[in-house]
Amino acid sequence: MSLVKQQHEHAKQFLASGVSSSTRVNQAIGHAMLFQRAEGCRVWDLDGRELIDLCTSHGATLLGHGDARLRSAVEAALARGAACSYESQLHAELAELLCRSIACLELLRFTGSGTEATMHCLRLARAFTGRQKILRFEGNFHGYHDQVMWSAQGELGQFNPPLKPISTGVTAGLDQLLVQVPYNRSDLVEEAFRRFGHELAAAICEPIYYNTGCVLPTTEFMATLRRLTAQHGSLLVFDEVLSAFRMGIGGAQQYLGVTPDLCTLGKAVGGGYPLSVFGGRRDIMQRLMPEGDCQHSGTYNGHPVVVAAGLAAVQAYREPGFYQHIQSIAEQLYGGLRTLFARHGLRVRVQGLGARFGMYFGMPPDEPVTSYADAQRHDKSLLMRFYAAANRHGVYFHDYGGAPCHHGFCAAMQPADVAEALARLDKAAAEIAS
Ligand code: PMP
User: Against a cut of 0.85, is the pTM above it?
Assistant: First the structure.
C-alpha cells in the first residue's frame, strides 16, 4: 500500500475521517492530499510523487506554495514574539492597503476564515438595518455557519422554494429568515424585493460565482441588485472570499463596476495563512463595538503572523505586471484545456476568469453555464474519472463531492509549467475518452 494510503488509514484512528476538514477527502482518489512538501505550483505527496497543483489550497495560495516574501514576513513576525490578541502597526498598514485597493472598503475588521467573515457581516447587516431577513442566491456558497447552510428542497430554479439544511445538526428554523432566488434572474430579484423588501437586512451573493465553477453575473442582474438594495434600505454584501484578487487588485467589484455596501475577503488575502476580512461603508462599520453596539471579537482575530503574511501577499498582488501575468497564464491554460478536450472528442465547457476556472463535463463547449441549475446537468462520473486520471498523470484537481466547482492556478506558474500540465492532462483526457 502507498504511504499516502497507509497514512490516511493511520490518521483515521485519531482524526475523524482522517482529516481536519470534511471536504478535504478527495472522493475521486479516495483520500486527502497528503503532502510531504510544496513549492511554487507543485506539491509532492508522501510517496514522493510530484503533482502540478490546480487546487492551490482552494484558492488561498495565489502566490504559490512557500513564497519567499511571505516566508520572510512570517519569520519576522515570529521573531517579534507574535504577541497574539494585541494590535501592531502592521494591522493598520494592511487595513489601509486594503482600503486603498478595494472600492467599498472604508473601514474593515480582520477575522480568521471566510465562514467567520460572512457570519459577522450578516450580524452587522442585521444590527445596522434592524431587519432579520437575508436574500441569498441558489447554490452560492458562504461558508459553514448555520445561517447560510441551506439549499432548495425540491426542483432547482424556483423562486423562494422551501429550503433544507445542507447538514444535520443545523439550527432549525433559520430558513425562515432566508429568501432564496436563482442566480442571474433579475426578474425574481424584483419579485423578492416587491414581496420582502421592507424585511431584508441584506442581499448576499458571490459577485463572480466561482463555487459552481465560474459563472459570471449578467450586467442586468448586478444592476438590479444594486438598485433595489439601495431603494429598499437593504445592504448589498459581496462575498469576495474567492473572487478578491483573482482577476485584479480591486476584486470582482472593480471588474463588474458595482460597489457593494459591505464585502468579505478570505483565502488569497492571507496568501495561504488563515486571514479573512469584512468591511465596507464607514457608517455601517461604526456600528461595531466598542464605538457601536454590534459585537465582533475573537482571541485570534488579526493574529500577527497572518497579518504579516497578508501584508506581504497584498503587496505582491500590487506589484506591476502581476495581473498581466495572471491573464496570460489564464489564456494559455483555459485555451489549452479547450483544445485538448476537443482533440479527444470530449464535450467539456471550460469557463474561467482570472486565476480560477470551472469545467463542465458532458456539456456543449460553446454554451455558457449561467446558473447552479445549469451546472448540475454535468456528467459527474466523467468528471470524477478525469480527476482520478489527472491525478495518476501528475495534476492535482480537488474534488468537491462530484459537483462542478472551482479550480485554479497560482502566480508562480510559468508558461512552461502550463505546457507541462497540459501535456499531462492530454494523457488523462485520452484515458477517459477511450
Ligand atoms: N465564502 C465563499 C464564497 C467561499 O468560497 C468560501 C470557501 N470556499 C467561504 C465563504 C468559506 O470560507 P472558509 O472555508 O475560509 O471558512
Answer: yes
